[in-house]
Amino acid sequence: MLTADLVAARRRGDELRLAPSDDARRERIATLAAALTARARAEIGSLRDDVEEALRQTATALEEGGDRRLGAAVGKLVRDGLRFEESAGETATELRRELFTQAAAARLAAGLAPFDRRAFLDGFADAHATTPAALETALYADRPGAQRLLAVEVPAPALLAAGFEISEAQAVLLRATKIVAEVESSDAALYRGLFRTLKFLRLLPVITRLDETREKRGGYRVEMDGPLSLFQSGGRYGLSLALALPAIAACDRWTLEADVRWGAERRPLRFRLAGETSAAVATPDDALPEELATFVSAFERAATGWRIDRAPAILDLPGAGLCVPDLCFVRTDDGARVYFELLGFWSREAVFRRIDLVRAGLPQKILFAASKSLRVGESLLDDAPSAALYVFSRVLNVRTILDHLERIAPTP
Amino acid sequence: MVVLPTGAGKTHVACLAIDDRRRSTLVLAPTLDLVRQWYDVLRATFGVPVGVIGGGDYGVEALTVSTYDSAYLHMEHLGDKFGLLVFDECHHLPGPAYALAARAAVAPFRLGLTATPERADGRHADFDELCGPIVYRKDIVDLSGGYLSSYETVRLTVELGPEDRLAHDEARAVYRDFIARNGIRMSSPSGWSDFIIRSSRSEDGRRAMTAYRRQREIAFAAPAKLDYVGLLLDRHREDRVLLFTQDNATAYALSRRFLIPIITHETRVRERSEILAGLARGPADGYGAVVTSKVLNEGVDIPAANVAVVVSGSASVREHVQRLGRILRAQAGKHALLYELVTGNTAETYTSARRRDHSAYR
Question: Nearest-CA residue of chain B relative to A375?
């Protein structure tokens, strides 16, 4: 993914605009991508430090008299597609700890004689049934620069060039405080796919029908916090937000407006983008974020008298908004249903928006789960007969959720 | 603003100020390491909950510690909540974003703390507006032998071997020729950025940049210099030695050659803590020396260290004073030693002279 410093964007009044993307620019991007990808393929098996240097040299040669930032940006997208071997992590750390401690003791014990590195390494290697050369290699094997390139998984140059504007927009959104997208599609499944993708990415959108807020046409308005508006986890949230952009761009027609803070002085600017379908983005209908998948697995192992529907319906309260639950709990005895939405740990505001939805009359039974770090109290929904708020500290507890379900569900 | 050397009690001054004013207080520090140190001190001193903002935390209490970065991001929520602001390592404050954080806060009481207020960009003039004028100043020489340990600085000049000398002089000639032909004055404030811009515009310029880097590499990591590091490590085998380099490549080379732990920005927090704890224990059951590039320049408390070896560094007076500050925290019977290794007849001679332009080195 691109970073903000690699984006060719200019300020026009209060607006931030990307460099115009024409055929010549796309062709230049594709040429750069092809050359850098070819160079990377030639380096399979090399160390990361050497691969980086080779790509830097190639980019320098290609950029002669050209746009250096564009070269750096394409280089970044190509590097994102390189797969390196896993870090040797703990093994190397442990080796360093032992070897350096013993070396310090050996230097101390040498008295007035100089420290004999070779003799020390020979002895250490003997004691560990290895060779000094193997020790030298293993000592910093966990450094990123010492990892070998295993594979090059970069999109085809033409595809990379076609998606370049979206990549630049993703980088701009990392500096957003608020994002409003309006999407239109003739296929209801695309909406569902988009909403599920947003959920999978743990974003907390406020979704309203466009025809209820504006007379003109159908579709949805999706409002999300930007990474800079959050109290914590800005980096991870920003990444999720960036990954959501292709899902928005998969709709038939879409527009996006973001309030961004740009440049060293974080000047407030408005960023606009619009488009028509570029490429479909598939998120499996029942894909769940990791912490929710862990909970579902634990819940299904326990004897609860409830089963879980992983792809529940979207709840629509006309005039108030939509709720996209993550799960629906179904009581096996009588089929009573309680929806469930994980509000995670990113936005306190999102919790209050859900509470507003309940107070506006959401008819379905629903349980919300919010992290303790959001500093909200379960008492916020004490007076709601059909909804509850569960504040969890680290993981979702099966027993506590079961208690909430039995309280909210209608008595059989 | 209070100017005191590292180890002279800046944190204590801040605690006294907080106790004296009795206002809700926000302490700002440049790194998460320092935020953790402040958190511990404030908890222990005042015995009340202390809020932390930064590094994934967002907790606001009457006493709160934050990184400058996080405070800047959240100042619109925080600006009206505190009566006293404490700016640790306040020489960072005049940067454009951090200055905005100071301006966005309404706190009438402000305390800036630093050992090195002077900035190369001249923006120390902004201190008056952001946190007030200097009201108290003591430098290292004023406190050495009392509040700080006594110390000596030793400058050692090494010479390049014949092959390195030839390679160095050739590379330097390429670089000097380019700046002369392009009328670049490296001594002017814009000299370095002029060189960066012009060298990027032509093949000739890129050769000059490569040559510039090459002659620096040869001077910074001259074989004779590294040999000397070995002698110093043997000589100070019973001490706690910090080795400083200008770049990570030299730091790794030293770590490998002398089998001593290294701390860089790549070092994970847990390993870094273990290394510093090992240095505190000493060579008998921990470490006698640690090499680092720049990450230990500032702020981190290493009271046990008593010898510093500056293998290479920039021309920054602040960096050089901060590096000396690492070994000056007073301990019974401690006499600190700072060695500076300089390769003779290279640009490093001039770099060394510039960074020593401080009372602590006279």
Answer: B59
Main-chain dihedrals φ then ψ at residue A45, nearest 5 degrees: 100, -15
CA A332 to mean position of chain CA atoms: 35
**pTM exceeds 0.95, yes or no:** no
Long-range contacts from A71-75, C-beta under 8 angstroms, 24+ separation: A71/A32, A72/A6, A73/A2, A73/A6, A73/A7, A73/A8, A73/A164, A73/A167, A73/A168, A74/A29, A74/A32, A74/A33, A74/A36, A74/A160, A74/A164, A75/A32, A75/A36
Cα–Cα dist A178/A171, whole Å: 14
Q: Which residues in chain B are contacts of A374 at CB distance < 8 A?
A: none
Token pair, residue A122, equals 């020979």
User: What is d(CA B29, CA A66) in angstroms, rounded to the nearest whole number?
Assistant: 41
Which residues on B lie below 8 Å from A265 (Cβ)?
96-97, 100
Are A104 and B230 a contacting pair at CB < 8 A? no
ipTM at complex level: 0.80
Give the mean pLDDT per block of 10 residues along chain A (412 residues).
Answer: 86 88 87 90 87 83 70 91 80 93 94 92 95 91 86 91 88 86 81 80 80 64 76 62 82 87 81 71 58 88 88 79 87 92 74 86 90 81 87 88 89 70
Distance CA B204, CA B180 (A): 13
Give the Cα separation of B200 and A65 in Å (integer): 9
Chain A residue numbers with beta carbons less than 8 Å from the beta carbon of B260 are 100, 103-104
